[in-house]
Amino acid sequence: MNPYFVWLGIVTFAFIAYCITVWYRSRKRSKFQARLSILFFFFVLVPTVTLVLVSSYLFTRSSDILTPPEVENALSRSLDILRNQFNKKGQTFIDLNPDFPALNKTIIENNGISYAGMLEMRQKQAFYTFFSSIEPDIDRPIFEFTGSNYHSIQSQKFLSLNVPYNNKNYFEYYCLFPDSTIKFVGFEIPGNQLNTQREISRILKNYTSLSLFLETIIEKKIIWAFAIGLLVLLGLISFQLTKIISKGLSEPIKQLTDGMKRVGSGDLSHRIDIKAKDEIGFLVDSFNQMAEELMTSRENLKRAERAAAWRDVARQISHEIKNPLTPIELSLYRLKTSLPQEIKTGTDFSESIKIIEEEIASMRKLASEFSEFARMPKLEKTDQDITEIINNSAKLYASHPIKLFFDHNIPPIPLDREQMRRVFNNLIKNAIEASQENEPIEIHVAKKERKLEIKIIDSGCGIDEKDMQKILDPYFTTKKEGTGLGLFIVHRIITEHGGELIIQSQKNKGTTIFIYL
Q1: Which of 1, 108, 204, 330 shows a CA-CA span of 20 to 30 A to 170?
Q2: Residue-by-residue DSSP string for 417-467
Q3: Is residue 163 predicted with pLDDT exceeding 80?
Q4: Same domain, 181 and 229
Q5: Do both 177 and 227 map to the same domain?
Q6: Residue-number span of the structural domain to which 154 is assigned
């Protein structure tokens, strides 16, 4: 039985065992990935096995057709014919000119010979007894005749070979005579005959190598070992490709499934981190966007609920503060008018009255802010020039350097002018309060695709990272005299306009506020 088929059975059994193992291991994590792994593995391996088997069979069957012995014999005979022609030319010249010492250059040249001569072997050394050449740079045979060459020529009575010299190729023919004298001739090989000889030699060499190679791999069944090795290699490659492809397809789906479960359980902060540009990437981006929108909606809902609760509190506090303020002011007025003049002119009395009046004014201002926050009016949008609104707000703080950078042709957009003016008044005031006296504030207005981008930049004290999470909450403030309603009201006005407010800040490096409308 051919051992190839035994090994093929072993390899097939190993692959089947692998498929079963992959199925039982993968199905616990993802049945979809298990099915993909098995399908990809078979889709890659089955055609490959078939191709290797058919190719190996055809290769072994066609070896005799590829290397018929007649071709090699024909090539060898062609080389022999060329060499015999050269040998015949040399032998003919020697036969026609038995008296070599009488040769001259004219006879040599007329017979197409380049040089001719005679030598004798004495104590294994060649001694040249005659030499004549029509080539001025050749004064002796190109081939170095030695004692070993003499033994070779004794058996065949002649010796011939190709010898290169000065970028030319010569053919030298040596003939041994009974008196141990060796006559030789040399002539340049014509270019076409030399090229033919070289081409036939090259083809014969390649053909011989191919014959030996085919004979070796077929007789020693190396082709079948190669086929088995190739199948194993392709099996391993298929395994890795299956693992990569199935994981690349199933892992995003598994992460999407897990992400949906986590989002469904309330973890809206969960995101899927998969880099892809195909449909899977679109699904991942859509899921992350959906989770982001859900989280934003939930935060907005919580913020709206807190704002509604705080408005009720603010309304009540404003009412409770305003109620006693008027009786206090009336009582203070009666006190100032009814007391004797000497008491009213006293230093302690004047300072006490001044402190009471300042505190009453501060409480009335606080009550007004609470009242204004509690009754946030509805938007009344009309087409407005945003640059004019910003410019008017900047003029209110002309004592501080403010740099304005507006794009040309900013189109009018629907806004509530009063509320938007309140937004920029508040933001510019905050930026100035956070900056040093001569540090300029920058305001940029530019068109970004289908939105309007407004940037308010200061290089002031910045905001702590721990405070950034609470900066938009009502009644949260980092100022000693702030109410914590400014940024909250700004954010609400921007949101009700369908815009977006983003705050970027670093401690001691400044703050940049982005508004997108």
Answers
A1: 204
A2: HHHHHHHHHHHHHHHHHHS-TTPPEEEEEEEETTEEEEEEEE-SS---HHH
A3: yes
A4: no
A5: no
A6: 96-195
